[in-house]
Amino acid sequence: MSQNEIRYSKEHEWVKSTEQGLFLVGVTEFAQEQMGDVVYVEMDDVGTSCNQFTKVGEIESVKAVSDLYTPIGGEIVEVNEELINNPELVNNDPLNGGWMLKIKVSDIQEINNLMTEEEYKNYIQQL
Amino acid sequence: MGKRTTLYNNYLHKAKIVDFHGWDLPIQFSGIINEVNSVRSNVGIFDVSHMGRMNCKGESVKEFLNYVLTGDLLNLEINQASYMFLSNEHCGIIDDLVAYKIDENEIMIVCNASNKEQVLAVLKSYRNLNSNFENIIIDDFTDASGMIAVQGPMSQEIMCKLFNIDELNIRRFRFILIPCEGEDVLISRTGYTGENGFEIIASTKLSSKFWDKLIYLGAIPCGLGSRDVLRIEAGLSLHGNDISSEINPKEAQLERFVTNSEETLYKQAWDNIQNTPTKKMLIGFIIKGRGIPRINNSIFLNGESIGYVTSGTFSPTLNLSIGLGYVTKKLDPDSNIEVEIREKKFDATVTKLPFLRR
Fold it and tell me: Residue A19: pLDDT band by 50, 70, 90 thresholds?
C-alpha cells in the first residue's frame, strides 16, 4: 500500500498510510452524511491497543450516537484534538481535517481485509 | 411508501426523507444545526401538512368540545386560537392541540398527525353519546389542505412579501383569513419553535405555491430534526415523548392549559389531581459535559434513581446538551442531578423552562 492510498471498511471507516507504520483513521463521506451534524467525538486514549474492527470511540450527532470501529489494529499514538472544539470537521472534511486517530499498525497484512476505493464505491451503491 | 403531503414533490430531491408515523417527511435539508440557526436568526419554513386539521361545526359546538377539551371555548374570541388538551376521564392527555374559533358555531382543531385518528374517534364517540350534539359535523380536511410553519425573527417580513401586504399585525395566538386566488387562507401567529412565527393553512395547490415562493424569498427549508431541537430549546412538550394518555397536565407542568371550569368528562379526576401531590413531575435539565441525553436514560439524585429522560438533544443555540424528563422528587431549579447516558453518569443541573427565552 503506497502513501496516501486509502482503504475502507464495511462500517464506513477509512485508513490511509502516512509515515512509516503510522496510519490515519476516520469516517467516510457516506458515514458523515448518514450521521448528520456531529457534535461530540470521543476517542479511546493515546496508548490504547486495539484489534482490527473493534470499537475505539463514539461519534455523537444531533440525531444519534455511532460507534467508531478501527479498520486496522495497533496502538493509538494520537487522537485529533481539533475535533473537540471543531467536531463539524467530521462533516465538512471527513477525509482530511476530520481524521480521528493515528495508529501504529501491528500487522500490515490486515489492510487486505479492507476495500479499495473502487470496491468501496461499489459497496455503498448497493446499500 | 408512506403517506405524502401536498408539498412532498416540492422538496423530494432536496431533503433526506424518513418515515414519521406513516408519513414520508423530510428529517433534514441543509443540516439540523444550520436549520436551527436559520430559525433563530433569520427565517425557516416547515412542512407541517401532516398535522391533523378538522372543522367542528354546529350550534352547540363549543359546549360539545368543552366536554372533552381542557381549554374554555366559551371564553375564546372569534379569530383567537388556544393550546389545550383532549383529555380522557382520568385527565390523561390523549393529544395536545390548538383550537381556533372561526365563528360562534365553528371551531377548527389542529392536532398531532400521530393522534389524528384517535382524536376523531374520541370526538365522534362523545357526539354519538349525547343527543344534544348529534347535529355536530366533524370534517377532517387534512388531505385537502396544506400547512406551512414560517418561523424566525424575519418571519413577519417574509410573510408580508409572500402576501404582498405592507404589514401583518396578528397578536400571539390570533389568526386572520386573507383572501388569495379565490380562497381564504388562514394565517395564525403560532408555532412550535419558541420563535416569533406564523402558520399558514391553505388549499393543497396554494400551499405548494407558497412553499416555492417562500424559498425564493429566502426562507430556509427545515425538517423534523431541527423542529425537534427547536421545540426542546423552547421547553415545549412532544406528545408521545413528554406527554401521553398516561400523563396528566399537572405532572407535565402544563396546568395553565386546563382553564375549563365547566362540567366536563375529566372534572372529577382533575379536582382530585389538584388536591393531591403528584407522584412525578416534568423537569428540564442541562448536562455538564459532552453527552447528549436520549429517551429513557435514567435520572439520579444522590445515587438514587428518581426518573427518566423523555426528550434530549444537543442545543446549537446554547452550545450544550439539554433534556426533559420526569422525576419522582420535587427539585428546585439549580438542583444537581445525574443522567446516565450509555452506562456513564453525567452531572446535570435542573433548569427552569424554557431553556431559551425569546
Answer: confident
Size of interface A-B (CB pairs under 8 A): 38
Residue in B290, B291, B313 closest to A62 by CB: B313
In which band, very low, low, confident or very high, does the pLDDT at B357 lie, cut at 50, 70 and 90?
confident
8 Å CB contact of B291 and A58: no
Amino acid (1-letter code) at residue A1: M
Tens digits of per-residue pLDDT, B5-40? 999 999 999 999 999 999 999 999 999 999 999 999
* Partner B contacted by A39 (CB < 8 A): yes
CA atoms of B121 and B117, how far apart (whole Å): 6
Confidence of residue B358 (pLDDT cuts 50, 70, 90): confident
How confident is the model at residue B99, as a pLDDT?
98
Average pLDDT of the residues in B140-162:
98
Q: What is the pLDDT of residue B261?
A: 83
- In angstroms, the CA B151 to CA B305 distance is 38
Cell numbers standing for residue B78: 372569534
- Cα–Cα distance for residue pair B60/A36, rounded to 1 Å: 50
Q: Beta strand pairing status for B183-188 and B197-203? A: antiparallel
CATH architecture of A6-125: Beta Barrel (2.40)
Question: In angstroms, what is the C-alpha Rg of chain A?
Answer: 13
Find out whether B319 and B290 touch, Cβ atoms under 8 Å: no
A55-84 as b/e, with b when 16 or more CB fall inside 10 Å? ebbbbbbbbebbebbbbbbbebeebbeebe
Q: Is the pLDDT of residue B1 over 90?
A: no
Cβ count near B189 (within 10 Å): 21
What is the rounded distance in angstroms from the CA atom of residue B67 to the CA atom of residue B59? 15
For residues B53 and B11, give the distance between their C-alpha atoms in angstroms, rounded to a whole number. 22
**pLDDT tops 80 at residue A1:** no
Which of 2.40.128.110, 2.40.30.110, 3.40.50.720, 1.10.10.10 would CATH assign to domain B279-351? Answer: 2.40.30.110
**Out of 3.30.1360.120, 2.30.42.10, 3.40.30.10, 3.30.499.10, which CATH number does the structure's domain B8-49+143-233 have?**
3.30.1360.120
Asked whether the ipTM of the predicted complex exceeds the cut of 0.90, the reply is: no
CA A96 vs. chain centroid, Å, equals 11
Spatial distance between the Cα atoms of B62 and B229, rounded to a whole number of angstroms: 35
Task: Identify the residue among B32, B35, B318, B322 best suited for mutation to test binding to A, counting A beta carbons within 10 A and taking the highest.
Answer: B32
Contacts of B211 (CB under 8 A, 6+ apart): B7, B10, B11, B45, B47, B146, B148
Q: Residue A100: its pLDDT value, please?
A: 98
